Structures are given as structure tokens and as C-alpha cells.
């Protein structure tokens, strides 16, 4: 299948991401195409393998498969088709807000990220590099007023409990947890990273005030954590404290955090903010990426979709029961 490269969306340590358009009769769709030279394609193939386990997950970027192409000078390149995020990354979204995001919107975005993490952890994976640059922005779904966030870039993801051959600092230093410095990698790392992201959305600044990797390591190993914003709601501060528990075995997991009272609060109970929420996502029609089907020849088997739908229904039922019990226990539900 032939694709037309429109522009470069970004470059990483081992590949390039292009905005592409499929060249096929009566088929006019756009995608993100992530490409890497064959000799550097290990991470890309690994990412494809992982992402295909998350078909139809609403807060994880969708992958439609991969293929090998022959480029200039007979160079072999491996490519994977991804859904295109017209809103860029969470960093771009923060800029549109003026740097900081109102807490009422942070509340919603945090829940979206947690929904994605729950899927990742229930499949037995750890993202290991959760940060604003790896969270992509899509048009609203399910009649919501806010953009949809999806977790992307699984190049450093690993299996829970599998011996790690990675040497040195894993991920991005500003979002790393204390235990990850000494090589202890679990789902708790992603939760710590989430807390750092929430701090950054609220303050508009990096979670730490130092750029020195050694000083940051020392802070983490001494038991320090990013400062919790003073102007945040009390329940918001409580939520972050659970993300920044030093002991990874006592840090709340994604399922428990989704039932934290902070995420169950109605909007009018959050702090007032003069800043306005962004209007519904608007982009030129040609750049929209909602409900885009896979490219020709890259269809997902129906059995995979049916299994995913069944799992989603079971998760939703469990979460509704947990949410009811949590709200009842904390007095936020009148019975």
C-alpha cells in the first residue's frame, strides 16, 4: 500500500513520526506513521506488539499494524500505523490554556490518564516513561466538552515481573519515582509519574526546581517529592499525597485512585477559577482523527474486538461498585 508523507510530526531517539495520507481509490484518510531504520526497529516492533493488545481502549493510542518499506538507497525501514492526534501533546494543550490548566479540567484529564493506566496495568505492563510529551490530545468523545487524552509511546514499556536488562535511569528524570532509581520498576512508577504530571498541569511548571540529575536523585532517595500546589483543593492535595507515597507497595494503584473522592467530586465543588475551560476541540476537517478506520489490509480481528468489549464491560461494572462504596464511606453519597 502506498502512503503520501505530508510532514514530519516529530523525531525521537530511534525514529521519525510522519503525518501521512493513504493513496487508495475511494479511501482518503490520514494517520501518523512511525518509522525507524531496520537496524533500530526493535523498539518500534516492541511498541507495535504492545499496542495491538489495547485495541479499542479509549485512552490509549491505537495502532493498526506495521510493515517494512524500501526507501532511498535500498534502505529498509520498519513502519507502524498509528491514529493521528490533531491536538498534539499535553504540553501543547497546556500552552493553549496559557500554561496552567484550571483544576476542574485537571480533574477530568487526570481521570482519563488513569483510565489508560488501568488498562496498561491490568494487561501486566508498565509504561515507564509517562510524561506530558507522551500523552496525546484528541477531539472530545462521549459528548464531553473537553479534549480526550491518550497515552502513547510505549518504546520503554516493560512487563511486570519480568527481569529488566535496562541499565541506568529509565524514562525521563523529572517524572521518575524513588525506587526506579535503584532499578525497582513496577506499576507504582507510573502512578508517581502521574502525580508529577498533575502538579505540572496545575502549576504550569516542571514538578522539580532542579535540572541536575544527581541532585534530583539525592532528593528522591531522601524521601522528597514534588511540592503539592498550595492553591489546590484539599481533596486534590490528598490525591497527590497518595501518588507520592515513598514506599511503592503502599502507593495507591490506578484502580484505587479512580475511586478517590477527588475524582468523584461534582464540578461545582472544585475551586473557582477565573480561567475558562477551552472550547470544544476545533480543527480543520482534513486533520480530524475521530473514528478513523484502519488502513486497507490492517483490519483488527472481530474476536479481539469482542474480547476487548467484554473486558471493558466487566471493568466498568467493577468500577461502578467500587465508586459507590467509596462515596458511601466518605460521605459523598446520600443514602
UniProtKB/TrEMBL annotation:
SMART domains: S_TKc. Coiled coil: none annotated. InterPro entries: Kinase-like_dom_sf (IPR011009), Plant_MAPKKK (IPR052751), Prot_kinase_dom (IPR000719), Protein_kinase_ATP_BS (IPR017441), Ser/Thr_kinase_AS (IPR008271). SUPFAM superfamilies: Protein kinase-like (PK-like). The keyword Nucleotide-binding applies. Residues 3-263 form the Protein kinase domain. GO terms for biological process: signal transduction. It comes from the Eukaryota. ATP binds at residue 34. Pfam families: Pkinase. Keywords: ATP-binding, Kinase, Nucleotide-binding, Serine/threonine-protein kinase, Transferase. One of its GO terms (molecular function) is ATP binding. Belongs to the protein kinase superfamily. PANTHER family: CCR4-NOT TRANSCRIPTIONAL COMPLEX SUBUNIT CAF120-RELATED, PROTEIN KINASE SUPERFAMILY PROTEIN. This is Protein kinase domain-containing protein.
